[in-house]
């Protein structure tokens, strides 16, 4: 049902999830850092990570989730000149910092971009970038939406010290998956939509984070594995990783759990 090696698959009749960014708020390499992970990211680049986002494309259309400050480079590397539809998880800079560049592309191409987010997220975006609505149409999606053939429903999740984010459940006949890039310590009501998924994309900034829990904002991998034991998704892919995570390392993860790298592509097919 889901092929983690689908990056060679060019069948336009298959929905594909592409990890256009897999990094945390600062990305990898850190400009100030000469740790082994950052140095490798500068050279061979397996650990190079733009700020987290994904694209979903298939026979019914395409869209992105989040538009961080690396958006322009992500588009260039993908060979794309435009994207019309973007869904936003929350209004932190690493998830919306590319909106002015997207809006500028819309201005030059004379095409209105379509931004989708909960109303409270839209309100923050408009306060921060008050000119964006000249070039973007902003759609509140508190009651859900249908986009590129996917039914999409969001719900607020705990983002620890950083407040809140939104996770999104995406469904088509035969497959249901969730994108939850920024969360920690989810209470029972926020965990409920994670049960019985075919795929969970989950943010894990560290393998084992040593910082004081009250100052943290994203699961580490050890905590994530405890969550997975509760909700039991068919497959899980970790994203939103800091320079603590080395993708060359074997972390002894369960067979159904993997770590995303840039460009990692998954086929999302109906049963």
TrEMBL record:
Keyword annotations from UniProtKB, A to Z: Hydrolase
Catalytic activity: 3',5'-cyclic UMP + H2O = UMP + H(+); 3',5'-cyclic CMP + H2O = CMP + H(+)
Superkingdom to which the source organism belongs: Bacteria
Pfam families named in the record: Lactamase_B_2
A GO term, aspect molecular function: hydrolase activity
InterPro entries, sorted: Metallo-B-lactamas, RibonucZ/Hydroxyglut_hydro
Tagged with keyword Aminoacyl-tRNA synthetase: no
Domain Metallo-beta-lactamase, chain residue ranges per copy: 50-240
Keyword flag Thylakoid: no
Gene3D superfamilies tied to this protein: Ribonuclease Z/Hydroxyacylglutathione hydrolase-like
Residues passing through the membrane, by range: none
Its biological purpose: Counteracts the endogenous Pycsar antiviral defense system. Phosphodiesterase that enables metal-dependent hydrolysis of host cyclic nucleotide Pycsar defense signals such as cCMP and cUMP.
Protein name, per record: Hydrolase
């Amino acid at each position: 049902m889901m092929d983690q090696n689908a990056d060679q698959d060019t069948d336009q009749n298959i929905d594909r999830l592409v990890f256009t960014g897999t990094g945390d708020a600062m990305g990898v390499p850190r400009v100030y850092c000469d740790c082994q992970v950052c140095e490798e990211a500068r050279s061979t680049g397996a650990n190079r990570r733009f700020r987290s986002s994904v694209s979903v494309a298939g026979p019914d259309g395409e869209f992105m989730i989040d538009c961080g400050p690396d958006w322009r480079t992500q588009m260039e590397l993908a060979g794309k000149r435009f994207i019309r539809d973007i869904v936003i998880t929350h209004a932190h800079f690493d998830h919306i910092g590319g909106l002015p560049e997207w809006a500028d592309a819309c201005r030059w191409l004379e095409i209105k971009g379509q931004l989708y987010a909960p109303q409270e997220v839209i309100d923050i975006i408009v306060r921060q970038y008050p000119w964006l609505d000249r070039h973007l149409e902003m759609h509140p999606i508190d009651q859900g939406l249908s986009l590129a053939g996917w039914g999409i429903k969001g719900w607020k999740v705990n983002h620890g010290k950083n407040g809140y984010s939104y996770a999104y459940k995406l469904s088509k006949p035969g497959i249901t998956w969730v994108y939850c890039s920024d969360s920690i310590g989810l209470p029972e009501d926020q965990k409920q939509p994670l049960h019985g998924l075919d795929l969970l994309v989950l943010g894990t900034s560290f393998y084992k984070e040593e910082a004081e829990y009250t100052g943290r904002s994203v699961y580490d991998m050890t905590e994530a594995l405890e969550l997975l034991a509760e909700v039991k998704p068919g497959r899980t892919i970790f994203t939103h990783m800091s320079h603590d995570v080395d993708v060359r390392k074997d972390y002894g993860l369960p067979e159904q759990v993997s770590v995303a790298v840039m460009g990692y592509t998954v086929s999302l097919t109906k049963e």
